[in-house]
Amino acid sequence: MQRSRNGRTRTSPDGQRPRGRARQRAFLVAAVRDGDGDHLAELRELLLTAGVATVGELTQRRDNPHPNTYLGPGKLEELGAELARADANLIACDDELSPRQERNLESALGIPVIDRTAIILDIFASHAHSAEGKVQVELAQLEYNLARMRGLWSHLERLGGGIGTRGPGETQIETDRRLARDRIAALRRKLAGVRSSRSVMRAERERAHLPQIALAGYTNAGKSTLLNALTGAHASVGDRLFQTLDPTTRVLRAGGRDYLVTDTVGFIRKLPHQLVDAFGATLEETRLADLILHVVDASVEEEELAAMTGAVQDVLTEIGAVEAHQILVLAKADRIGPDRRAELERRHADGVLVSAMTGEGIEELVGRIEAEFARTLQDVELLIPYEEGSRLAELHALAGDLERDERPEGVHITARLPAAAAARYERFALDGAAR
Ligand SMILES: Nc1nc2c(ncn2[C@@H]2O[C@H](COP(=O)(O)OP(=O)(O)OP(=O)(O)O)[C@@H](O)[C@H]2O)c(=O)[nH]1
Ligand SMILES: [Mg+2]
After folding, report:
1. Does 237 sit in the ligand 1 pocket, CB within 6 Å?
2. CA nearest ligand 1 atom 7, residue
3. What residues does 262 pair with on adjacent strands?
4. 282 alpha carbon to ligand 1 midpoint, in Å?
5. Is 227 close to ligand 1, i.e. is its CB under 6 Å away?
6. pLDDT (tens digit, 9 = 90+) per residue, 210-267?
7. Fewest Cβ atoms nearer than 10 Å: which of 42, 252, 319, 388?
8. What secondary structure does DSSP assign to 81-132, as a single string?
9. Total-model pTM
């Protein structure tokens, strides 16, 4: 796909062409269960991010996509007629297609077909910067392609082993599959290597004792901007989907205590499972957090906001991040008028309205974060041996305020720690007898 960064001008969904002629002009299709609402808004955004213009749209109401052609035969015919009128040279489908559906659509319509997963993978590929990010994306892409090759293979197999089915075609597919599998195995090893590298381990150890906060939310919700506002970090911000792929962690200092805040990859409705797998380590940051700041763009309409928060909860459940407490952060407050404000207060009374632009609500949010951890504060008595001296600085950062008393066997500490942190210091805890 072309990677030019288009502006945010939207092509009209009625088939009108954008001014100037984009190289790739997609006709968007979706089979949807209920016909209400703008189902293709997100696909349009994804394509825009990938540098593709939208020249037409078609949705069909169906309980399930047609197993052979995704759309039903009638709609397919209608689509065929509209394609020429809209001057489309690409069909973009809002769901992941089976290899069979993709093949059939292409031969019925005579232009290339691309599905939602391939589009998202393409965006990830162009936004991956770190070595790890690149490996993760390549892995996801290979898995997607391998499935397609497998599909092609079983299709040939069904031809029944007669003349022509044992020829070079089969050998080629077998070879490609084997090469893809070898490469997948190599990438998996490489990823495992990256993760166990010493620097990562050290960073993780040092980090393990501070309360962990993860920013989670839809892509483009304003997570990186919020991280910057909270911690003065310089995370990359951009008005395009999936700006951030690599996790960034910064320290937030509040009420004399330190917290670690991690910004990571954004979520989206129907996040391709290949990506959820490949980005396992990245999403781990969210899974292991003590507190999740669920950031949502409050400047969108209520219906869309509900769909976005639902999609985020789905991904959180999928990756197993179900135990951490959450704070709902309603971002981009500077963009909303008084009516919407009142509606938000009514519907999301538990949320904190913030604007990273004007600073509104940031202090309140920090207060809420402190309160979340304060809720779990517990008194601990620890004995830190002198060889573990580095823990002392950590404890100061954690507790803000603590009492220390140097004894022959180590430093005796009395402090109030958030439960999550206290658990990590269990091995230094003094039992009654030693006090
Ligand atoms: N007006 C306004 N715009 C904001 C605010 N916060 C973020 N934005 C804009 O929203 C867009 C997305 O912000 P990011 O911080 O990159 O969003 P993100 O959630 O990190 O997005 P991904 O990294 O793609 O998941 C950018 O153009 C920001 O400038 C805000 O409080 N007010
Ligand atoms: Mg970001």
Report:
1. yes
2. 222
3. 214, 249
4. 20
5. no
6. 888 999 999 999 999 999 999 987 778 888 888 888 788 888 998 888 888 999 888 8
7. 388
8. HHHHHHT-SEEEESSPPPHHHHHHHHHHHSS-EEEHHHHHHHHHHHH--SHH
9. 0.79
